[in-house]
Specification:
By secondary structure, the protein is an alpha/beta fold. Helices cover 45% and strands 24% of the residues. The protein is built from seven helices and eleven strands. Strands 1, 2, 3, 4, 7, 8, 9, 10 and 11 form a nine-stranded mixed β-sheet that branches. It has a two-stranded antiparallel ribbon with strand order 5-6. Strand 5 and strand 6 form a beta hairpin. The N terminus is likely disordered.
Length: 285
């Protein structure tokens, strides 16, 4: 009896415990790279730098763009530029390694598999981060993917991208900048006083929410939570004991210091502009 051989389709999924955490600086760098892209480029791609923790969390802390040419069936990367930028970054922070790559746009495209194959040779199981720079409906669609291979015997047939959990954490100052970034068009960037006003408005809303929660617990309308109660008590205890007149005086002094700095910086810019014009006129004469 003649023996028959059968080929089995094999699917190699990535680790399900893998997750990613991206810092706001990476998003700002990607958006800046997209704004400075060549006129004929539809999207930009680049390298993600960071570290991988023992629990499988990928911490994405930095990035840089990589020039490329892309068509319907092929993608050409500037590999020399990629390696030179990597060496420059590692001279500053040797702990940052390649953890994946990014691209602008909504979701994964046809050429993503070719680019992902290149980064798979740079690092094992790279992360693919996509950032929708159009900010549709005023929201930023940011997703992270890993690749899973579909093989027939020893031959790889295709690669499937699977989305993984992504965490974007920001402090107060970064949140202000990110909110401005999500606005497609603004007349001007907010100044120090405008930023302070926006922060005070958000703080007022949070205090009002805490007041409603405490009032609801006292009246028996809300089920009390011991953890929330201890957190509120610790927050109130951390506030300095200062009288209202002293607080107003402190705020006025701080405000006057900021106005003085703005005035001095304006005078410095005027002097520099005047000196540049005088220097140019002297060279012409």
């Amino acid at each position: 009896m003649a023996s028959s051989e059968s080929a089995v389709l094999q699917f190699f999924p990535s680790s399900t415990s893998l997750s990613a955490k991206v810092h706001p600086l990476v998003i700002f760098n990607i958006c800046d790279c997209y704004v400075r892209r060549p006129d004929q480029a539809e999207r930009v791609i680049g390298t993600l730098l960071g570290s991988i923790s023992p629990d499988g969390t990928v911490d994405i802390r930095n990035s840089y763009g990589v020039p490329h040419n892309e068509s319907s069936d092929q993608v050409a990367l500037d590999i020399d530029y990629h390696h030179n930028m990597l060496l420059s970054h590692q001279k500053v922070n040797p702990k940052e390694v390649i953890v994946g790559w990014y691209s602008t746009g909504f979701g994964v495209t046809g050429g993503s598999a070719l680019i992902h194959e290149f980064y798979s040779r740079e690092v094992q199981n790279p992360i693919h981060l996509t950032v929708d720079t159009t900010f549709r409906n005023g929201e930023a669609t940011i997703k992270a993917f890993v690749s899973a291979s579909l093989s027939l015997g020893e031959r790889q047939l295709a690669a499937q991208f699977q989305e993984i959990p992504l965490d974007l954490r920001m402090i107060e100052a970064e949140q202000v900048g990110f909110d401005i970034l999500k606005t497609t068009m603004v007349e001007k960037l907010p100044g120090d006083l405008e930023g302070m006003e926006a922060s005070m408005e958000r703080l007022y809303v949070l205090i009002d929410d805490v007041y409603k929660y405490v009032d609801g617990v006292v009246e028996g309308q809300v089920v009390p939570d011991n953890d929330i109660g201890r957190f509120i008590a610790d927050t109130v205890a951390s506030l300095p004991k200062i009288s209202p007149p002293a607080f107003d005086r402190l705020m006025n002094d701080t405000l006057q210091d900021q106005l003085l700095l703005l005035y001095l910086s304006s005078i410095t810019r005027t002097h520099l502009s005047l000196a540049e014009k005088l220097n140019t006129a002297a060279q012409i004469l």
